[in-house]
Amino acid sequence: MSEEVKGRISVETENIFPIIKKWLYSEKDIFLRELVSNACDAIAKLKKISLSEEFEGGTDYRIDLNFDQNERILTIQDNGIGMSEEEVHKYINQIAFSGAEEFVKKYQGEGDKPEIIGHFGLGFYSCFMVSSKVRIETKSYRKGSQPVVWESESGTEFTIKPGETTERGTKISLFLDGDSGEYLDPWKLKELVRKYCDFLPVPIYVKEEKANKQTPLWSEQPSSVKKEQYDDFYKYLFPFAEDPLFHVHLNVDYPFKLQGILYFPRLKHELDANRMGIKLYCNHVFVSDEAKELVPQFLTVLQGTLDIPDLPLNVSRSYLQNDPLVKKISSHIVKKVSDKLQEEFKRDPDEFRKNWDEISLFVKYGLMTDEKFYESAKDLIFFRSSNGDLTKLEDYVERNKEKNLGKIYYAGEAELSSVYMDLLKSQGLEAVLVDSRIDSHFLQFLEGKNADWKFQRVDSELADQVLDKEASPDLADSENKTIEDRLKEIFSKAVGREGVEIKTEALKAEDVPSVILLPEHLRRIAEMGQFYGQKSSELLKTHTLLINRKSKLVKNILSLSKGLHPEKAEKLARSVYDLALLGAKLLSEEELSAMVRRQRDLLEQLSSD
Ligand code: ADP
Ligand code: MG
């Protein structure tokens, strides 16, 4: 070739333009990703060839981004494999077959790492999103090869002529169109390199300044990476985050390719579903900030990187969810994460317990939402026990089998020092503590999973052991009334409203005159209500007032009512009810002030008697 030749690109190539136009407004930046990844491919190819063939020029491989503000030209230059005239025709003008694919078929051996990115996104032609004219100057690595210049203004018509360059490799000049001046800015270019090409294995310079980091830790063999390296890498990815709890290094070659590092962040608060912690890569090239389609929702709280070379990138996101490869990858990740939790627990149970508060939300949420995760992590359910330790749920059940008669007592932080806990503890019984809002759902979930797990809040019913079975029976008196009948009369008058059921029992603890019991189901509805932001106080007005007929105070009230001071008995009964409400933390602000007034009256009376 000694003169200029004009031509039209192949029909197949023309078809790519409508697609490119569609992307134009949403993700214009990706043209840079495409050109830099091609440049990186060109160098990877040459490195491969260098093992078997001789070539011209040095081995100081690099990619350079430069621009000329006045001319509005942006150049992307590599010293890779370059192209002959024939190759330009084949790979640029007839895009029907991808040069990368052909190269891989020819050179890639079995078991090689996938070093060539190829078939990445929209490819070379995406540069017409930002250019009014594109020029390729290229010279092949082969000895004595002729340089070529390819130029096109439309993308569909081109000219090709002999070039003058003496340097091996390819330089692509973009004559930026009127809307694309933003790329004539070193900051913008560095930002894009860092975003998309940070981990490419070739140094990338923006105006002579190196802009990429260059070591994708996830591609290393897990056995060769030290803990500090994992920590440093995390800090590099998430500069403002606290140290992670632990990490999972994924490294799969077969039956699919997957590499990545996922970190467990410290989760102090509620799960933040909108957090975007997993960065998705394709052969080290950044693709997306979200991995929603790749991991089940509970795992989106993890942070780190996933590199999946075979992921179909240009198909719709909703399609991805049904992709068999994506499904396989997703369940692999779930498995690895639960394995890791098991491993961490075995490695250092104390440390694991220490971290439990921070991973419990995530684990519980995972158990509830992912069947596979449940299967592999179900023995990692811990609760804090009222005796102070963190206990495995199954251990609690085992320990208390005889005593609790199949029940798992539970209490909120607030009930820990309540009369209910005192009653249980006095009989050597133990309760598990629930704390986060997710727990009301979680208990319900666990009950559905295992018929042996029946949760009962400490204030919903008294344990059998607390009751005095030997107490003398409540027989009817001369007026044919039992103690229960009489106490009901007194207390229903004192309570003075509907919705409170009055019962009597003989408790072993004689110093406790009465307690309030809240039916388990009402408590749960109320908790759910709180979860969804409703008021629960109305619901909790329906409760049982349980009166201890062995209590001295109650006995006194009974005899006062029969004697000369029935009004005194009623006041005392009301006080007993107030105290029970107080113990159950069921008093509203107004009720509390009303109670204080009643107590004042009572004390006044007591002092003047
Ligand atoms: P793909 O990368 O999937 O092959 P592209 O449209 O990005 O598709 O590139 C088409 C082909 O053009 C490449 O496979 C390669 O053969 C050739 N090519 C593009 N850029 C370069 C470059 N900088 N150096 C050498 N060859 C290149
Ligand atoms: Mg490409």
From TrEMBL:
It comes from the Bacteria. Signal peptide: none annotated. Pfam families: HATPase_c_3, HSP90. The keyword Transcription regulation does not apply. ATP binds at E34, N38, D78, M83, S98, G99, T170, R317. Gene3D superfamilies: 3.30.230.80, 3.40.50.11260, Heat shock protein 90, C-terminal domain, Histidine kinase-like ATPase, C-terminal domain. Keywords: ATP-binding, Chaperone, Cytoplasm, Nucleotide-binding. Residues 27-166 form the Histidine kinase/HSP90-like ATPase domain. GO terms for molecular function: ATP binding; ATP hydrolysis activity; ATP-dependent protein folding chaperone; unfolded protein binding. Belongs to the heat shock protein 90 family. This is Chaperone protein HtpG. It comes from Leptospira semungkisensis. The gene is htpG.
